[in-house]
Design a protein that fits this description.
The chain is α/β, with parallel strands linked by helices. The chain contains 17 helices and 15 strands. Helix 2 packs antiparallel against helix 17 and helix 14 packs parallel to helix 16. The longest helix is centred in the first third of the chain and has 38 residues. It is flat and about 135 Å long.
Length: 557
């Protein structure tokens, strides 16, 4: 019996060569197949599964919106209430008005104002109403125009409005200017002053400059809080010695009484949320000074900034993403009573309160703890308190008073806002929102282009696109003079821009830099890639050698 080895050795030599060639064919074909599968399927699948998803952003529109300068259109209708003005005089006066408006229209590097004016004679109804008016209160009852964004200036004969000694603006954007007989020209300088106080072009320009990085050195802009679609007002009563003075307050009723008008004026524009608290055994951490002559304690202006930080730590935190304004009513201790605030001249402040820019206000409410058996129960007179806090609330929200003396008005004690004050505020906030939204989008576009592994999902792309469209729409409406609609568009633009910029998905791959990618992928691909590469090279050489043999060329190893 012969062994298998002896049988195999007896096989013909050409059959052995064919078997070896077939094994090589299978081996090289498999190598080429694996390599092609790796290149055609493996790498694309790896690429698709590891590529950072980046939805398209309107970079060109963002840049265009960032470079666009706001233009504010201001529509003013002048009405002459006098039968003594001839058509010729009216025509000449109309030309003077147009020249004045062209001169008043200003343009700087940040903002442009365009005054658009029209002139007409008063209707019979208007003449009848103004003839029957006997005081400025009667002028408040005048019917307002259908166009809520238009200002109407009534030029009155002095005898028709003897109760007016200066220009007067009512709640509804109607301005009344008294003039002497045949003196229409006197209206021009008065109109320039009134328009400057109402429209405040310098304030609008500074607002846009600050948003774009200019130094914030304006007291008015430093004082008011940044725009938010909702604000939280927190009222805190500090009672340091409840065992001697047990103060209490009905803050809910006071809010309904003193803040209802303010909330009603703003309910379509912003949301005001009210919160309150009473903190006991919380007193000032600093010593007061004693006035020997007056027999009272006092704090100087240098002391006031140091009152806030210790108190703020005890106020507690309200979980709220909205801007918060704090208003503190402090009842002094028995040792501190009576406590007053001094001004820089060393005199007692009549308000006994001070405002903290972009934070809130502080009011000292004195209660005598010796007015009866202790603890003295005392109900805080919130009428006195809100008389001081309401002006602070207006200033912090950005309703800074113009020269109301020039306009014949005083700040209302109930905190209510006139239509022209709201319109004035909307103009400024629209400029601020446009600048803030464009600056936010421009920063986001730069980040996205510089950080290639930042994820941009479809929601972010939609928010950015909507914000850009709203910005451009707000520009158009502002130029058209539709202040209310422009404000709402700018508000939406700012909300979309902030939502996109602060989206948490943008941070998912920010901490996965390129060197870490190599550290992960090299150990994964090298053990697979090197054998595939060497096998593919060997297979290519084998195919070349086989091709040479078939063509009769000498085979090379």
């Amino acid at each position: 019996m012969t062994s298998p080895s002896s049988e195999s050795s007896d096989l013909p030599e050409d059959l052995d060569l064919k078997l070896q060639e077939r094994e090589r064919w299978y081996s090289h074909t498999a190598a080429i197949s694996f390599t092609l599968f790796f290149l055609i399927v493996g790498i694309p699948v790896w690429w698709l599964t590891t590529t950072v998803y980046r939805a398209e952003l309107p970079y060109s529109d963002i840049k265009r919106a960032f470079q666009k300068m706001p233009t504010v259109g201001l529509d003013i209708e002048l009405v002459v209430v006098s039968k003594d003005v001839s058509p010729v005089n009216m025509a000449e006066f109309g030309e003077q008005i147009q020249e004045t408006f062209q001169k008043m229209s200003s343009r700087d590097d940040f903002i442009s104002l365009r005054y658009r004016g029209s002139l007409r004679s008063a209707t019979n109804d208007e003449v009848s109403f103004l003839t029957s008016a006997s005081s400025s209160k009667d002028l408040e009852k005048m019917s307002h125009p259908e166009d809520g964004d238009k200002y109407v200036v009534y030029i009155l004969h002095a005898k028709l409005a003897e109760f007016l000694s200066q220009p007067f603006i009512n709640q509804q954007k109607q301005i009344f200017i008294p003039i002497g007989p045949g003196k229409l020209g006197e209206v021009i300088p008065v109109l320039e002053d009134v328009c400057g106080e109402i429209f405040r072009p310098s304030v609008l320009s500074r607002t846009f400059q600050v948003v774009h990085g200019a130094p914030l050195n304006d007291r008015e802009l430093l004082r008011s809080v940044k725009f938010g679609s909702s604000y939280t007002l927190v009222f805190t009563l500090l009672v340091p010695e409840p065992n001697k003075v047990l103060a209490n307050w009905d803050i809910s009723a006071a809010v309904d009484e003193y803040l209802a008008s303010l909330k009603s004026s703003l309910h379509k524009l912003i949301d005001l949320k009210i919160k309150s608290q009473v903190l006991y055994y919380e007193k000032l951490s600093m010593d007061t000074k004693k006035d020997a002559d007056g027999g009272y304690n006092y704090l100087t202006p240098d002391d006031m900034p140091h009152l806030i930080n210790p108190v703020e730590a005890r106020l507690g935190s309200f979980v709220d993403t909205n801007p918060t304004l704090n208003f503190i009513v402090y009842v002094p201790t028995e040792k501190q009573y009576p406590l007053y605030l001094h001004n820089h001249q060393g005199e007692i402040l009549s308000t006994n309160s001070f405002l903290v820019p972009r934070w809130g206000g502080f009011y000292i409410y004195n209660v005598n703890s010796t007015d009866g058996p202790q603890p003295v129960k005392h109900q805080v007179d919130l009428g006195v308190v809100f008389t001081q806090l309401l002006p602070q609330i207006r200033k912090l929200l950005g309703f800074t008073s113009s020269n109301t003396a020039l306009l014949g008005r005083t700040t209302p004690s109930d905190g209510s806002l006139s239509q022209w004050e709201v319109s004035q505020w909307m103009q400024q906030r629209t400029i601020e929102n446009i600048g803030t939204a464009t600056h936010t989008l421009y920063s986001l576009s730069n980040l996205v282009q510089n950080i290639r592994n930042m994820v941009i999902n479809d929601d972010i792309s939609k928010q950015v696109t909507d914000s850009v469209h709203a910005i451009l729409e707000s520009h158009q409406l502002l130029n058209k003079g539709s202040i209310s609609e422009a404000f709402l568009a700018s508000k939406y633009a700012l909300e979309c821009a902030d939502t996109a910029f602060f989206d948490t998905s943008l941070l998912e791959l920010l901490y996965f830099p390129e060197d870490q990618k190599f550290a992960i992928y090299i150990p994964l691909f090298l053990p697979v890639g090197i054998p595939l590469l060497t096998s593919a090279i060997a297979a290519i050489k084998w195919l070349k050698g086989k091709n040479n043999v078939s063509q009769g060329k000498p085979k090379t190893d």
